[in-house]
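(Structure overview)
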Amino acid sequence: MDQGGTLADLRDVGAYLQGHFLLTTGRHSDTFFLLARLAERPDRLRRWISLLHEQMADIHASAIVGPAVGGIIPAYQLAALRPPCRALFTEKGDGDTMVFRRGFRLDPGESVIIVEDAMTTGSSIQKAIDAVGAYGASVAAIGTLVNRSTSNKTPWSVPFYSVLTVKGIQNWPPEDCPLCHKGEPLTKPKQ
């Protein structure tokens, strides 16, 4: 049985797609990770979260924060493995920000882990970091299930963990997209 953390595992549940896709960032790519398909299988997701939990074993935090929507379920499952951690999530705020709503609060100085399902540019993670900082809390580490970033470094000074890092996946601004230039239909897989 597959232990999780592989492209084969993602392909098996329909979470690893190839075609012409609109990413959340507005960029285009020939590869998409629809990790909601992994999250709909708690038994499969549990293996991925367990791998992330093992990587973060030495990180101390009292809250796990997931950017909405993709980070909510992974944050909850990671918090369940780290009692008494709380699970919180950020949501879109005014403009291009993320904020805590629904009564979620952090204490000044509180230590937080941010968990996202997939990272391409890290913009959702940065917005969650900003929301955490607005309360005077600190980010102890960041984790993702899939890192598809084209960069070899993250822009953050805290430890970064990923269950699966996939290099070589390109993404383009719409005006430079070779798939658009070929006339291939654009897919919005999250709709």
